[in-house]
Amino acid sequence: MEQPIFSTRAHVFQIDPNTKKNWVPTSKHAVTVSYFYDSTRNVYRIISLDGSKAIINSTISPNMTFTKTSQKFGQWADSRANTVYGLGFSSEHHLTRFAEKFQEFKEAARLAKEKSQEKMELTSTPSQESAGGDIQSPLTPESINGTDDERTTPEVTQNSEPRAEPSQNALPFTHSAGGRSKSDAHAHSAINKHWEAELATLKGNNAKLTAALLESTANVKQWKQQLAAYQEEAERLHKRVSELECQSSQANTVQSHKMELNQTIQELESTLRKKEEEIERLKEEVEHAKELQDQRDSLSQKLQEVETHNKDLEGQLTDLEQRLEKSQNEQEAFRNNLKTLLEILDGKIFELTELRDNLAKLLECS
């Protein structure tokens, strides 16, 4: 199972397959480039995806070399993919980190290859001593580890036992006219024990090789599945390369397009920095807007309270106006009543005056 162990971002290029001099961009923008470790095959790979499309699928081998061609650009050749990959980084620091990881995993791949070769040598050289003939090993390095060209499972007869019968010419026996001597019998017994021990050793080696074969057979199925997946991926990549070859134009056009892309990248980086600054400013404005929104909500609540209070006051004012109008009407009626009463009172006073004068006259006459 593959797991990513280091990732960075870069612009991906491949060498022009026609000119072998100019770079052809395989990604419109910076993409993630990762180192993967396949614990099943014990290999390291560099993989990069642009959406669902694999634009880098390179297995690191001990003979690969990563070269820095500028402060922000590096490249390496992949003989299996028959191409040269190029990566453009945003800074020299990212390029240096990627180059250090490349050297580290390249060394790990070399150690893994040496260890695998030693294991194959040990596995492919079991004890094959026999007096009567040679015993062939049921396993080979190809059957254990598998190859890209052929992954077949060798057939082994588990119950077959090597014949270890020595020939008469190989035994140090002497013949006489009367028969074997006692020393010959002891020698024959010692030789039989030697071959029995040798036969037991061969049986043990055969059991170990059989177990290794069973394990190898189980791994072959998994390797075949992985090989089918790799072949499918390789076909898809070849198809993509063909499409890119069809879409590619003359070398000058590609070089001009590359310069335009580099300029566009610089403009986009500048725009990105401005956008980040604007985002920070907008965040501050959003915080300030939240405070203003809280103040606005508080003022709206107070305004509603004031409007409610104004409505109450308007109702009271209307009531007072009605009462005032009613009071004015009552005052007017009261005035009219007073006027009428004064007129009546004046008449009565005039009558009383006349009555007094008459009484006075009567008193004078009497």
TrEMBL record:
Which SMART domains does the entry link to? Answer: WH1 (SM00461)
Q: Cellular component terms, GO, for this chain's entry? A: cytosol; dendritic spine; postsynaptic density
Residue ranges annotated as coiled coil are 192-344
Q: Source organism's superkingdom?
A: Eukaryota
Return the annotated region ranges for Disordered.
Answer: 113-189
Name the source organism: Leptobrachium leishanense
- Compartments (UniProt record): Cell projection, Dendritic spine; Cytoplasm; Postsynaptic density
Instruction: Give the chief site where it resides.
Output: other
Task: Indicate the segments forming the WH1 domain, all copies.
Answer: 1-109
- A Pfam family hit: WH1
MF annotations from Gene Ontology: G protein-coupled glutamate receptor binding
Q: Name the protein family.
A: Belongs to the Homer family.
Descriptive protein name: Homer protein homolog 1
